[in-house]
Amino acid sequence: MAKTVIAIRTEPHVAEVGDVELLFQPEVAGDEFLQAYADMQNASSNLMSGVAERGLEMELIKAERAAVRAFIAYPMLPESRELFESMQLPDRALVQLTQWLMSEEVYGAGRPTGSSGGSAPPSSTPGPCSTVNGRPGRRSGRLDAHAPPERRRGPA
Q1: Taking the CB of residue 63, how many other CB atoms lie within 10 A of it?
Q2: Would the CA dihedral through 125, 41, 84, 16 be positive or negative?
Q3: Helices (DSSP H) in the chain: which residue ranges?
Q4: Pairwise CA distance, residues 58 & 133, whole Å
Q5: For the segment 16-43, what is each residue's pLDDT rounded down to a tens digit?
């Protein structure tokens, strides 16, 4: 007979952001978390479509940022949610919080389970490996050891 033990977390997750500790529910379940994730993905997709068609539009950027903040705030404990809503954070901090929440140590293993409409849209956060406008970014001077020799950057 097979047997498994499934641990249920009971202590809140803690994210230190600057000198503030934000507390998150030990576990999340249900459609609301998945809906918050889907809303964030849709806002990102809308931004990318808008950029490809019309260029940057402030309203699309604001909508994506609001969806990211809503996704991060959803699993917070109420006192942390209030504090978070008043915090002005750089986009990179929001991205780091999102990645941390979706990590295996917190709520998932990269993305929530459930039906998938396909692969994730390109990243909307510009950076050295960004795919803004659907084109991979350059790796500023770093050696890519896994690339074929003709595509490597840096010393041979």
Answers
A1: 18
A2: negative
A3: 31-54, 58-73, 78-86, 91-101
A4: 16
A5: 999 999 999 999 987 888 899 999 999 9
